[in-house]
Amino acid sequence: MMKISMTSYNVDLSDADLRQLSQLGVDCIDFGKGSAFKGVKEQGYPDLDELLKLKRRIRSYGMDINRVTLPDLSLKFMHNEPGAEGELENSIRAMKVFGEAGIPIARQRFEGDTFPQLTTQYRSIQRGGAIARGEAVGFNQEEYHPTLELYEAYWNRFCDAYAQLVPVAEDYNVQLGMHPSDAPHPGTLFGGLGYRRIIDAFPSKNVGYIYCVGTRAEEGGSSLVLDEINQYGRKGRIFLVHFRNVRGSLPTTKAFEEALLDDGDLNMFKILLELHKVGYDGCLNPDHVPILEGVQIEHNPSWPNTCIQWNYNNIGYVYSIGYIKALLAALVEFSGK
Predict the structure, then answer these.
(1) Is residue 131 included in any domain, yes or no?
(2) pLDDT tens profile 110-138
(3) How many CB atoms are closer than 10 A to CB 31?
(4) Which of 50, 98, 145, 331 is the most buried if burial means most Cβ atoms within 10 Å?
(5) Structural domain boundaries enclosing 278
(6) Is the pTM of this model over 0.85?
(7) Cα(240)–Cα(122) distance, rounded to whole angstroms?
(8) For residue 134, what is the enclosing H or E element?
């Protein structure tokens, strides 16, 4: 049975946060920032004792840790500059710590996998004045298009990192999941067919996807999402699903806007049916959510018009959790199990 997870970039969740998440029926926490774990700033990777303490605290509220993030690999690593290998060593050590703590899924971020200069962000005003993230092609005059040579250089550095991370993931029974490039402009490292190449290059069963429905819909709409779920899901390579809706896509409308689950172009129940068909039984995470009336979020210059992590009394996430729980209940009735 699929479950519900919620993202936090902060490991210091309050008791009120955890009580509220538990009351809403959230099953798991996904931690989206590798530097947030205690020990990373001091030694470069998480402290095992502190991580186990965090895990016990979350479990005391009836939830568990589902996904974590390894320390970031910066442009220093991507350009193979002095000190780059130290970053990768910290990620390897972090993977071992997460494995020892019994964390099932880890993500490695690679700086430079997106080209934000190719679109202009704008504030989309949706029903009732809800604020949502929008991005459009054509307003930005910079429009520097990265070269094939840069893509190949970045791909080789990705392969260098995964060549060392994957054996550790196998040894410690951690699923190494990759999120697609967001926004998925042509030539992005994990957009287009680059996303597909990950499991070609690394056929290990521990290598797969944090599959973001919204991000992939930004690239190709509902048909692409359904095709990819069928392709990756029947191979057992979908480890976590970011379950969100969007309007438009870059190829069709030259723009996209994030939307509430019932207010975008995608039929989210159809997405759920496809996940069920391929046997997916992991977590659904509502991920980015429009900003509804009364919600206060921490300012983030990269994501000024959307909610990217849980905060107390965020009714946008409350709405999404209830919507997903209703879809899961309908799925039980529809499928008979």
Answers:
(1) no
(2) 999 998 888 999 999 999 999 999 999 87
(3) 25
(4) 98
(5) 3-115+143-248+261-335
(6) yes
(7) 28
(8) strand 131-136
